[in-house]
Specification:
Number of domains of chain B: 1
Helix content of chain A: over 70%
Strand content of chain B: under 5%
Strand content of chain A: under 5%
Distance between the termini of chain A: 55 Å
Oligomer: heterodimer
Distance between the termini of chain B: 19 Å
Structural class of chain B: mainly alpha
Radius of gyration of chain A: 18 Å
Largest sheet of chain A: none
Number of helices of chain B: 19
Largest sheet of chain B: 2 strands, antiparallel
Shape of chain A: globular
Number of strands of chain A: 0
Number of domains of chain A: 1
Shape of chain B: globular
Structural class of chain A: mainly alpha
Radius of gyration of chain B: 21 Å
Number of helices of chain A: 7
Chain lengths: 228, 493
């Protein structure tokens, strides 16, 4: 173990390449969520992103012998790949709505904005010199980019399901960051965090249903009564 | 003492479970259980006061020092008074078709909400603190939506989304704090607060700086600091009134408690300048925004919500002054604000019930119509405007004196000016509601001169007594507790 040497000239080790690749894959999926028009597709993309982070946890657990991460991977598959998407898909079946509402920005400007924000996060995170024992520093930069793009997703999309998914994706970004800088975080705390996510998902689902009953759509464009 | 800590973390949960029991306890038993849990929590918090003034009390991962004892006391006080007030409040909801379900959910939610808020300051662990604050969010968001109105649903959605996103940032802060702690204390570090404070200057400065700013923005979302306060007026105005009182009086304070812990860590690691600068900017902007919105506010409960933004700004500014006097003022302010804002919302709830509107323009002649509530509401507003002889006068005086003492002349003067502006807005609206006689129009004459419920008046009398005690002569043990808390914020432990 020990911090990985990040040589400029030397090619990265296959471990560094694999883990960074998985992290970047998460970011790519995040961009897919940003653009997905079908709400169902967005939920599936979230599940895919959760699969990738679970694989990453297994890779780290195996290659760097951090056995706690196996447990974390198991819990996160159960919760983020199975439970959360199930709750959301059931919700979509009940509300009988397929297509997301209009966005605040066109696709092109939205993606450009997200790219700019992601680049900002990517370079800003390097300034803090945070490095973890098990993952290359570049993965932290990717995690910060994922968090920031999740914010773009929550801001730009105008329906409650996309906004909720944006929050769950934000949590995936934070999980990735925690694997980089806090790989040794006691498993019990990680599990409590995940349990907390489950509670949040249930509450989000309840409030989405309440919203749907009141507004008879999933769009947030009617949420303009309270101001001042 | 350890039993007291455990009991505090269990009693409200028991009341919630009682309300949830499938056997369907009769409704009065559920409300009696909630009141009993509230009063018990208050007694337990009072028992903790002398103990925590003498030094930290710990039991496992529960730990109470003088700072956390203050926040527990404020929360327990509001829990007890709100539980009593809720009995009267729910009597006015009897006409609802789904009353049985409504009242059950209300009591479950209220007890769970109080439980999470009491647990947050009890936790000697940044991760568990974060989780407690997150639980307060999800429970209170459901309570905001409880009335089942369209506006309630809108407020709840905005609240849960904005607050959860904020707490996502706070979770990043927690993780960065872990990384900072683990780099000094080894990988077995579990995010306990005391060792992190002990490690102080050895912590890596850039990580601590990052964690502090993330914590101020993240937890600050729940405190209601500008510019992440936007959920606050919506949630406070649309929630059932007892919930508004607890949101404003204790939830914001408990979230500020989390900021205060990160402030302690940051000052231990970096010295005071950086964290104080950050808090001063957020505090001043919050105070400025609140003062502006208070002037022409048309909705009674939003008026009180912006007053909460004002007072949270004052807490941030007081902390930023960094003087022992100002720290003592901040801690006293937490207690006094809980009592005063609780009373103000209790009074507003009675007004809203009597007039069936939150629109300030349509609330007139309160003094003619509500012989008890109107004067008590007036006293609460005067207390919120930091008029003597109430507790907030003393606390704001201490804060300003601390600011002047540490030669922060401009911020101290700006604070006084903005607080005066806020007073103007609050007092104009209140004068119109209470003193301007009701116009003779349809519906106005039919109003009876009668209080809706004695259950709603009694907690306000208790609140006024508490405000007077805090303002005129705080008991010696409480003064000792506040002094000890100020010393802990100074860096002594």
């Amino acid at each position: 173990m020990g911090p990985l040497a990040e040589g400029v000239a030397a090619p990265p080790s296959s471990y560094a390449g694999l883990t960074t690749g998985l992290a970047v894959l998460m970011l790519v999926i995040e961009f897919g969520m940003l653009q997905a028009t079908l709400l169902r597709a967005q939920v599936r993309l979230y599940a895919a992103q959760s699969v990738v982070i679970s694989i990453l946890a297994v890779v780290v657990a195996f290659a760097r012998s951090v056995p706690e991460l196996y447990g974390l991977a198991a819990f996160s598959v159960l919760l983020k790949v199975v439970a959360v998407p199930l709750v959301m898909l059931r919700l979509l079946r009940r509300t009988n709505q397929e297509i997301a509402a209009s966005r605040a920005l066109g696709v092109a400007s939205m993606v450009l904005l997200a790219v700019a924000v992601a680049a900002f996060g990517f370079f800003a995170s390097a300034r803090f010199g945070l490095a973890g024992p098990v993952l290359p520093a570049a993965t932290l930069a990717v995690a910060v980019a994922i968090v920031l793009v999740s914010f773009v997703l929550m801001i730009v999309r105008r329906d409650v399901v996309s906004q909720a998914i944006g929050f769950f994706a934000l949590e995936n970004g934070v999980s990735l960051a925690s694997m980089v800088v806090a790989a040794g975080l006691p498993l019990i705390l990680e599990v409590v965090f995940l349990f907390d996510l489950l509670v949040a998902v249930v509450v989000f689902a309840v409030l989405i249903r309440v919203h749907h009953e009141q507004a008879e759509s999933l769009s947030t464009e009617t949420l303009t009564e309270l101001r001042g | 003492m350890t039993t007291v800590l455990v009991a505090l973390a269990v009693v409200p949960l028991l009341a919630a479970v009682l309300a949830l029991l499938p056997g369907r306890l009769p409704a009065p038993a559920v409300s009696v259980a909630a009141v009993a849990a509230g009063v018990t929590s208050l007694v337990l918090a009072l028992v903790l006061v002398p103990a925590a003034a003498a030094g930290p009390v710990a039991a496992g991962f529960l730990r109470v020092d003088a700072i956390s004892a203050i926040f527990i006391l404020a929360t327990a006080f509001l829990y007890a008074t709100t539980a009593v007030y809720s009995i009267g409040y729910l009597r006015g909801e009897h006409q609802r078709a789904d009353f049985a379900r409504y009242s059950r959910l209300f009591w479950v939610g209220l007890n769970l909400f109080a439980w999470a808020m009491l647990c947050a300051p009890l936790m000697d662990n940044l991760a568990l603190l974060w989780i407690a604050v997150e639980i307060t969010t999800v429970v209170s968001a459901l309570l905001v939506a409880l009335d089942g109105t369209r506006r309630g649903a809108e407020a709840a959605w905005k609240y849960v989304l904005i607050a959860s996103a904020g707490l996502g940032i706070a979770l990043l802060a927690t993780i960065v704090a872990y990384s900072a702690g683990a780099s000094v204390l080894g990988p077995g570090y579990d995010l306990a607060i005391a060792p992190l404070l002990g490690a102080g200057p050895m912590l890596p400065p850039s990580a601590v700086r990052l964690a502090f700013v993330l914590a101020v923005v993240g937890f600050g979302t729940k405190v209601g600091l500008f510019p992440v306060h936007t959920w606050l007026p919506d949630a406070h105005s649309e929630a059932p009134t007892p919930v508004s009182a607890m949101l404003s009086g204790s939830l914001l304070a408990v979230s500020f408690y989390a900021v205060l812990r990160y402030y302690q860590i940051a000052t231990a690691a970096l010295g005071g300048d950086f964290p104080r600068g950050v808090l001063l900017v957020f505090g001043m902007l919050s105070l400025l925004l609140a003062a502006m919105y208070l002037i022409e506010q048309r909705n009674l409960k939003r008026l009180l919500a912006y007053s909460s933004v004002e007072h949270m700004g004052i807490l941030a500014i007081g902390t930023a002054f960094g003087a022992p006097l100002a720290y003592a003022g901040v801690l006293l302010h937490v207690l006094a604000h809980a009592a005063a804002k609780g009373n103000a919302f209790f009074g507003a709830g009675v007004l809203v019930r009597a007039y069936r509107t939150k629109d300030i323009e349509r609330l007139r002649g309160g003094l003619d119509r509500l012989p008890w509530t109107a004067p008590l509401f007036l006293l609460a507003i005067l207390a919120l405007s930091a008029m003597p002889p109430f507790g907030l006068f003393r606390s704001e005086f201490l804060i300003v004196a601390g600011g002047l003492g540490s030669e922060r002349f401009v911020p101290a003067a700006a604070m006084v000016a903005l607080v005066t502006l806020a007073f103007l807005g609050l007092s104009m609206a209140t004068t119109r509601m209470l003193f301007v006689p009701a116009e003779t129009g349809p519906g106005a004459a039919s109003a009876p001169r009668r209080e809706p419920s004695a259950w709603m008046v009694a907690p306000m009398i208790v609140g006024v007594v508490a405000l007077l005690v805090l303002g005129l002569h705080p008991p010696d043990t409480l003064s000792a507790l506040i002094a000890q808390g100020a010393a802990e914020l100074e860096g002594a432990r």
